[in-house]
Design brief:
The structure holds 2 protein chains of 2 kinds. Chain A is an alpha+beta fold. Chain A has 8 helices and 7 strands, in the order ααααβααββββααββ. Chain A has 2 domains: 58 residues, NADH-quinone oxidoreductase subunit E (Arc Repressor Mutant, subunit A, Orthogonal Bundle), CATH 1.10.10.1590; 125 residues, Glutaredoxin (3-Layer(aba) Sandwich). In chain A, helix 1 runs antiparallel to helix 2. Chain B starts with 8 loop residues before the first helix and ends with a helix. By secondary structure, chain B is α/β, with parallel strands linked by helices. In chain B, strands 3-2-1-4 form a 4-stranded parallel sheet, with helices on both faces. A 4-stranded mixed sheet of chain B has the order 8-7-10-9, with no helix packed on it. In chain B, strands 5-6 form a two-stranded antiparallel sheet. Chain B has 3 domains: 222 residues, Rossmann fold (3-Layer(aba) Sandwich), CATH 3.40.50; 89 residues, Ubiquitin-like (UB roll), CATH 3.10.20; 109 residues, de novo design (two linked rop proteins). The interface between A and B is large, with 60 and 72 residues.
């Protein structure tokens, strides 16, 4: 008997139909398990194993390889600060310190209320808009230490259900990697990527 | 030098809706894929070979030759590598977000040429916005009959699956990417087989091409291989996207012909060094590339061959510019840390070596360095990349470990004094100078 909601089970079936072999669906199903529970639990990994026909140990071997599968409870807002070379050159370490200080959460940790998780990450592919920060994988470029603090305060006060990259960019961002932006209404609903097949895309005002 | 824009033309002229299928079709889109349906595999492979198109993912392997290697077994598969993760590189993100149909038409052309009926687009997990754009484009293409059973009214079937990665740079290595797509850990496969075109996804013949590479294909068919070779430089045809970041006034992606100089790129195109400070070092082709310094390389032309002769590479076209205020030990530490973090752990020289190199660099930067530390770094490096040659002689399955050696070579060749100053002063000389002001 599956523990997943009917909606998640339906998505899992649709995802598996997009691959010639069942095991290829492990990665998207791990995201589904995260979206179901907020993080990847042992039970979630077992469920993925049942769907694709491999053992829990085999699922765990995959899940532990990739940094985006969070096996511990993660905050409502996962704040990822890039500190790779291009961002470091333009002050990313100070941005990270600003986020840590304002949230009270050191990198690699989650606060007791489950509001913020903070991490420093390697290159986010936003080097032309360094330093870059993501909230639930939605991108903000050209962030200063002061703006990073403002971002943390705003998240703590406004507590948006849908995290929208364009909105955060306007409020807290600066230089971008490329300019011609098209305003996007979609955003993330949790600390995992917002992507249609995963059912994790929210819309501003519509979520 | 004015070369027409190719892959960024539509997004430059129509910034508001270059991503939509209507704009794509109104500007010549989806005219070449139906033409490809009327061509044989040999004709398509020959056309791309004649265009001289080199892979844009970093290895600069001739795209037509790669297609030509496809083994006869079927089914065959196509995987588009959109796992862009090399520090300094952000060009594919722009192509994915701003012109996803251009890439998708390239996918259809590649599939037809290689008798592929199921293609995968592997997008890194930290790119949800580009992935959403691509998924929307895929849905639109299905709705118009350009994907699915009987594309463009033919009897050819093509399915496309958009697959999200989960935060592992190594999955950009094509055999690691294939393992990841099979639902395994993203560890590079032992070679041989050297090419996925022989045995790739599910051990079937597989073409793995980069986003920018496939995005060029509709244009090559539209203008013809001959016209495409007239763009850019004879050795390096077409235009290429170069991502400039670091201490420049105008960072960004620039579509350029090969053959301009580093001086032109940094001072004319990217506006010069921020604050008009002095240029200190250039990383020419992403974090993996050995560095250049202005005294020696500033007037070198930017082509694959000139870069290779100078002991480095153009790689993924990512240029990281560092000014005089940059501590070279700190920069090296940050680059090596990346490779230590992203090492998949299969090969001991890489797993252990990169970790130790990171720790040694950190202690030098923190003022705890020893006089022998640079030699120690070189010794560890030699265990990963024998003889410290370029291109590297690897002791590892894939080039990740040897890539971590590149910053160490820069310290040895150009910044030995700066390393020694750290050791003698018990800290970073730049930081100490700033503190005393």
């Amino acid at each position: 008997m599956s523990q997943w909601s009917e909606a998640t089970q339906e998505r899992a079936g649709q995802i598996m139909a997009r691959y010639p072999q069942k095991r290829s669906a492990v990665m998207p199903l791990l995201y589904l398990a995260m979206a179901e529970e907020g993080h990847l639990s042992d039970e979630g990994m077992e469920e993925v194993g049942r769907w694709v026909g491999i053992t829990p140990a085999q699922v765990q071997a995959v899940a532990t390889f990739y940094t985006m599968y969070k096996r511990r409870p993660t905050g409502k807002y996962l704040i990822s600060c890039c500190t790779s070379i291009s961002c470091m050159l333009l002050g990313a370490d100070d941005v990270l310190h600003g986020v840590e200080d304002e949230s009270g959460v050191p990198h690699g940790e989650t606060d007791p209320d489950g509001l913020f998780s903070v991490e420093h990450v390697e290159c986010l592919g936003a080097c032309g808009g360094a330093p870059a920060v993501q909230v639930n994988y939605e991108l903000i470029e050209g962030v200063t230490p002061d703006k990073a603090r403002e971002l943390v305060r705003w998240l703590g006060n406004a507590r948006p259900e849908v995290v929208n990259g364009d909105e955060m960019q306007e409020l807290f961002g600066g230089v971008r990697s490329f300019d011609w932006a098209i305003r996007e209404e979609d955003g993330a609903v949790g600390p995992y990527p917002a992507f249609q097949p995963l059912g994790t895309v929210g819309s501003e005002g519509g979520a | 030098m004015t070369t027409p824009l190719v892959v960024t033309k539509r997004m430059t002229e129509f910034p508001a809706d270059s991503h939509s299928i209507d704009r794509y079709e109104a500007t010549g889109g989806y005219e070449q894929a139906p033409r490809a349906l009327g061509m044989t595999r040999d004709e398509l492979v020959e056309e791309i070979k004649a265009s001289g198109l080199l892979g844009r993912g970093g290895a600069a392997f001739p795209a037509g030759l790669k297609w030509g290697f496809l083994a006869p077994a079927r089914p065959s598969f196509l995987v588009v590598n959109a796992d862009e993760s090399e520090p300094g590189t952000f060009k594919d993100r722009q192509l994915l977000e701003r012109d996803p149909h251009q890439m998708l038409e390239g996918v259809i052309i590649t599939a037809i040429a290689n008798e592929v009926h199921h293609a995968f687009i592997y997008i890194r997990g930290e790119y949800p916005k580009p992935a959403r754009r691509v998924q929307t484009a895929v849905d639109e293409a299905y709705a118009r009959g350009y994907l699915g059973a009987g594309i463009f009214g033919s009897d050819y079937e093509l399915e496309v699956t958009v697959h999200l990665g989960a935060g592992a740079y190594i999955c950009g290595e094509e055999t690691a990417l294939i393992n990841s797509l099979e639902g395994l850990r993203g560890e590079p496969r032992l070679k041989p087989p050297y090419f996925p075109a022989a045995k790739g996804l599910y051990m079937q013949p597989t073409i793995v091409n980069n986003v920018e590479t496939v995005s060029n294909l509709p244009h090559i068919l539209a203008m013809g291989a001959e016209a495409y070779t007239q763009l850019g430089h004879p050795d390096d045809t077409g235009t290429f996207l170069i991502s400039v970041s670091g201490h420049v006034k105008k960072p960004g992606n620039y579509e350029l012909p090969h053959g301009i100089t580093w001086r032109q790129l940094i001072f004319d195109i990217a506006g010069g060094i921020a604050g008009d400070r002095e240029l200190k070092a250039i990383i020419p082709g992403g974090a993996s590339a050995p560095w250049f310094v202005p005294e020696i390389h500033l007037d070198d032309r930017i082509t694959k061959d000139v870069c290779a002769e100078a002991g480095s590479m153009l790689g993924s076209g990512a240029v990281i510019v560092m000014d005089e205020t940059t501590c070279m030990v700190r920069a090296a530490e940050r680059l090596v840390r990346f490779f230590a973090h992203e090492s998949c752990g299969q090969c001991t020289p890489c797993r252990e070596g990169t970790t130790w190199m990171e720790m040694i660099l950190r202690r030098i930067e923190d003022g705890q360095g020893r006089a022998i530390d640079l030699d120690l770094l070189l010794d560890v490096s030699d265990n990963i990349s024998v003889g410290l040659a370029w291109p590297p002689k690897m002791t590892t399955i894939c080039p990740l470990g040897p890539s971590a050696v590149s910053p160490i070579l820069a310290l040895r060749d150009y910044f030995r004094d700066e390393v020694q100053a750290h050791v003698e002063l018990g800290g970073c000389p730049l930081k100490l100078a700033r503190a005393s002001v």
